[in-house]
Amino acid sequence: MPITYRVDHTRRIVFATGSGTLTDSDVFGYQGEVWSRPDLRGYDELVDMTGVEHIVVPSADRVRELAKVSASMDAATSSKFAIIAPATLAYGLGRMFQTYRAMETRSTKEVGVFRNQQEAFAFLGIE
Predict the structure, then answer these.
(1) Reading across the β-sheet that carries 79-84, which strands appear in turn?
(2) pLDDT digit string (tens) for 96-113?
(3) Is residue 52 within 8 Å of residue 18, measured between CB atoms?
(4) Which domain range does residue 8 map to?
(5) What total of structural domains would you count in the chain?
(6) 59: Cβ contacts below 8 Å, ≥ 6 apart
(7) What is the pTM (predicted TM-score) of this model?
(8) CATH number reported for the structural domain that contains residue 81 in this entry
(9) pLDDT-based confidence at 84, cuts 50/70/90?
(10) Alpha-carbon dihedral sign for residues 32, 96, 62, 48
(11) Going by C-beta distance under 8 Å and a sequence separation of 6 or more, which residues neighbour residue 18?
(12) 124-126-93 Cα angle (round to 5)
């Protein structure tokens, strides 16, 4: 599976890792599987794209749709979502998602896109 994840209930964060070839179907599948779980509502999120070798580029409409779907699954309380994207394409798609997500009125997650783990961890306030 191109996206695997683990949940740290103590720190209330979901750590996800992308690998290999990633499609928008993989991302939507991850979104639905993880964020439909009631026990994870309000958790922070870290998605590490370092291991992704190829991205099947989605249209801007699909990125906007993902932002809309994601915002509709947010808890009432605010949380943070960090994306580690060292590659240029992944970084650009992450920034596009960040922009669309910020435009969603239902969104309660603050999204940050970073080139490395250190910056993402600092954003999330974790060591």
Answers:
(1) 3-8, 13-22, 44-55, 79-84, 109-114
(2) 999 999 999 999 999 999
(3) yes
(4) 3-124
(5) 1
(6) none
(7) 0.95
(8) 3.30.750.24
(9) very high
(10) negative
(11) 2, 3, 26, 47, 48, 49, 50, 51, 52
(12) 35
